Amino acid sequence: MKYILLIQQGSTPVPPSEAWDALSDEEKGEIYAAYKAISETPGVTPGHGLQLPETATTVRVRDGETLVTDGPFVETKEALGGYFLLDAEDLDTAIELAARIPAARMGGAIEVRPLREGY
Fold it and tell me: In what order do the strands lie in the sheet with 2-8?
C-alpha cells in the first residue's frame, strides 16, 4: 500500500524564523539528522519541504473564470509544510514512520493517508 505522510507544521520551528534561531545547534542537527534518516528509510520517497503559506497562490475556477488569490488562507497550525511518500505493508508501518517525523513531536501533526492506485 502506498501512503502520503502530510506534514502539518503547527507550531514547529522552521527556518528561517525566530523560533528556529532559538534552537541550539545540537537541536537543529538532531532535526536534520532525523529527516535525513527518514528520507533514507526503505520504501520512503522523500518529498519536498514547502515554502511558508504566505508564498502560496490559490486558483479556483468559477463559472468558467479563473480566480487567483494570494495565500492558502489557513491558520499556520493548519499549513502543510511538506510530505513523504511511503510504500509500506500496512498502516501500522506508516504510523511508526510518521511518529519519527520531528514535526510530530514539536507542535505539528502528520496526516497519514493511503493513495488511490490505478488512476
Answer: 44-49, 80-87, 2-8, 109-114
pLDDT at 72: 66
Q: Bridge-partner residues for 45, per DSSP?
A: 85
Write the burial class of residue 117 (CB in 10 Å: 0-12 exposed, 13-18 middle, 19+ buried): exposed
Give me the number of domains the chain comprises: 1
Q: pTM score, two decimals?
A: 0.84
Domain that holds residue 34: 2-114
- Cα angle 35, 57, 14 (rounded to 5 degrees) comes to 30
The x, y and z cell numbers of residue 84, run together, are 513523504
| Predicted pLDDT of residue 74 | 62
